[in-house]
Amino acid sequence: MGLKNVNEHKNINEEFRQFKGLSFTSELFAEIKVLQEKNNWYNFFSLLLDWILIITAIAISEFSGNFIIYLISIIIIGGRMRGLDNLMHEASHKLLFKNYFLNKWIASVFIALPVMTNFNSYCTSHNNHHKYLWTEQDPDTSELKKLGLGRSTITTKTFVLKYILGSFLIKHIIKNIKDCFIRLFSKDQQSNIEYAIKLSVWFAILFIAVVFNFWTQLVLYWFIPLVTIFPIIRFWSDLADHSGLEVSHPLYSSRNNYGTWIERLILTPHHDNYHIVHHLFPYIPHFNLKKAHIILLKHPDYAQASHCTGFFNSFLPGFKSVIEDVVKKMNNVN
User: Fold this and answer.
1) Closest of 323, 240, 255, 261 to residue 293, by C-alpha
2) Do residues 269 and 237 lie in contact, with contact meaning Cβ atoms separated by under 8 Å?
């Protein structure tokens, strides 16, 4: 009987495996592993979708000639710039395309270059974010801490004034223009060929815009959202991912946000709202994050992590909005 109990205990132990400080059943872990398969076609259409939405927003605004429609269009464009940014994020994990050359150069030309980001610099920065989360070596959360978005005493009213409305001062247009020029002319982690391609393409775009007289549209529909809307969206999205969660455990240092369809369109395109899943399993492509989330809900610890429904207001009872959750976590209140 004693030997039987020992064998039963051994078999039970073999059904579990430790991963990032969490105990997963082998069955659950196997379900997650299947979701790591890359898909070139899905990401090709994801990239195409961003550009179609951008072009459509421009066309509708130009056709309408209405200022309100223009404002809506640049919000959509800024949101799809965030979409491009999130696909750049996929490329940094080598998840955009299976082929290394395609992964790097499609990301460099059709994603990084238009929003004045450098592929290699982004990859280095994002690798440090994962490796050194919530330390001084993490470029993302160290910025949040400098802004006071770690652990601190704050009211909801003060938070909204300082970080939501105040984001227009934190990410003000002069700073954003300066940052764009710095990124454009920076040669950081670029070969001479890469640097020459970047400058040549932008020179060609500007030259063609002047020759064919669409430079006004280039300013109105690209440069203006690039230095106004996109930085705010990026800041709000980054704020939602980690603010107030200043701990080292990967399960409790990030936040999910199942926002409305408008929030998913603008703030968290390409499944960026499943941020806990991404930090636990960074090699799951974005299109499988929701599937992984549903599987992980079987894990009791994951189910009790920071799950929000809506950025500004929660649309489901029993769940907090991002703003409410960030304020509570900053004040160390569950």
Assistant:
1) 255
2) no
Which residue reads 């669409």 in tokens?
214
Which residue from 185, 180, 209 is spatially nearest to 199, judged by alpha carbons?
A: 185
CA 269 – CA 84 distance, rounded (Å): 9
CB neighbours of residue 249 within 10 Å: 16
Predicted TM-score (pTM) of the model is: 0.91
**58 with 221: CB under 8 angstroms?**
yes
One-letter amino acid at 257 equals N
Q: How far is CA 8 from the centre of its chain?
A: 44
CA distance 125 to 89: 11
Q: How far apart are CA 267 and CA 235, in angstroms?
A: 10
161-220 pLDDT, tens per residue? 999 999 888 888 999 999 999 999 999 999 999 999 999 999 999 999 999 999 999 999
The burial class, CB within 10 Å (0-12 / 13-18 / 19+), for 197 is: middle
Smallest CA-to-CA distance from 95 within 46, 128, 131 is with 46
Structural domain spans, the chain:
2-32, 35-330
